[in-house]
Structures are given as C-alpha cells and as structure tokens.
C-alpha cells in the first residue's frame, strides 16, 4: 500500500497513506490529509488555522472478501477569511457515492 495506490486504486488524492491495521476481519487504511490541501468548507479560502481533529471512518470497496475501511482524522479549521469554524470537506467522500461514513 502506498500514497500512489490510494490515488490510482481508490481514487483518493491529497492524502498521505499512514498505515494498515487488520481488525475484526476487515482492513483499515489510515490516511492523513496533506496540510496544503486544507480549505474552508464555507468559502473555499486556504487562509485557515487548524483547530483540532475529528476521527471519521469510511467504508470503501472490499478487497476480495475483506471489508475495507478508510480511517481519517478530519481537520477542523478556523477560516481567517470568513470566520467559520468547520471540519474541512473530505474530497473523496463528500463528492460521490463510493464512500460512506460508518
Ligand atoms: Zn471561509
């Protein structure tokens, strides 16, 4: 597994691959968002200050008979442009049907 495979195999880009754990018969890929891709969820500004993280888990396409989950600490940011304090959007999950929070 690699950042490259995340992109080409799972359509996840702008995130770094961290590690893999095998729990409860499933495969869990832990990924991390690249700092430079953080944007305000309201206005899209990149003038944002990190303000804590929230753990989210997404179900991905299985590998063989194994369930695959993507684990991500979603960054909360304070926007210096519009003042919003929100979680950033999760590109691969918020734009399509492929990934669902579980
Ligand atoms: Zn903003």
Would you mind describing this structure in some detail?
- The structure is a single chain.
- The chain is mainly β.
- It is elongated, with a radius of gyration of 14 Å.
- 12% of the residues lie in helices and 51% in strands.
- It contains 2 helices and 6 strands, in the order αβββββαβ.
- Strands 1, 2, 3, 4, 5 and 6 form a 6-stranded mixed β-sheet that branches.
- The model has no long low-confidence stretch (mean pLDDT 89).
- It binds zinc ion.
- Zinc ion binds next to loops.
Q: Can you lay out the helices and strands and say which pair or pack?
A:
Layout: H1 3-10, E1 15-23, E2 26-33, E3 48-63, E4 66-79, E5 85-87, H2 91-94, E6 100-101
Parallel strand pairs: 2-4
Antiparallel strand pairs: 1-2, 3-4, 3-6, 4-5
Bound molecules: zinc ion.
Zinc ion (ZN) is lined by residues 40, 42-43, 45, 79, 81-82, 84.
Can you give keywords for this protein?
single chain, 102 residues, mainly beta, 6-stranded mixed β-sheet, binds zinc ion
Brief description of this entry?
This protein has 102 residues and is mostly beta strands. It is built from two helices and six strands.
User: How much helical structure, as a percent, in the residues?
Assistant: 10-25%
Number of strands: 6
For the largest beta-sheet, the strand count, sense and barrel status come to: 6 strands, mixed
Q: What are the secondary-structure elements, in order, as H or E?
A: HEEEEEHE
Small-molecule binders here are: zinc ion
Alpha-carbon distance between the termini?
Answer: 22 Å
The averaged pLDDT comes out at: 89
Unreliably modeled segments: none
Dominant shape: elongated
Structural class: mainly beta
How much of the sequence lies in strands comes to over 45%
Oligomerization = single chain
Backbone CA Rg: 14 Å
Number of helices: 2
């Amino acid at each position: 597994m690699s950042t490259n495979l995340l992109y080409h195999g799972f359509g996840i880009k702008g995130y770094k691959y961290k590690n893999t754990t095998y729990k409860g018969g499933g495969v869990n890929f832990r990924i991390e968002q690249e700092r430079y891709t953080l944007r305000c969820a309201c206005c899209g500004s990149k003038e944002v200050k990190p303000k804590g993280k929230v753990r989210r888990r997404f179900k991905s396409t299985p590998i063989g008979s194994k369930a695959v989950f993507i684990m991500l600490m979603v960054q909360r940011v304070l926007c210096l442009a519009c003042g919003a304090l929100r979680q950033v959007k999760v590109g691969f999950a918020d734009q399509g049907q492929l990934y669902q929070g579980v």
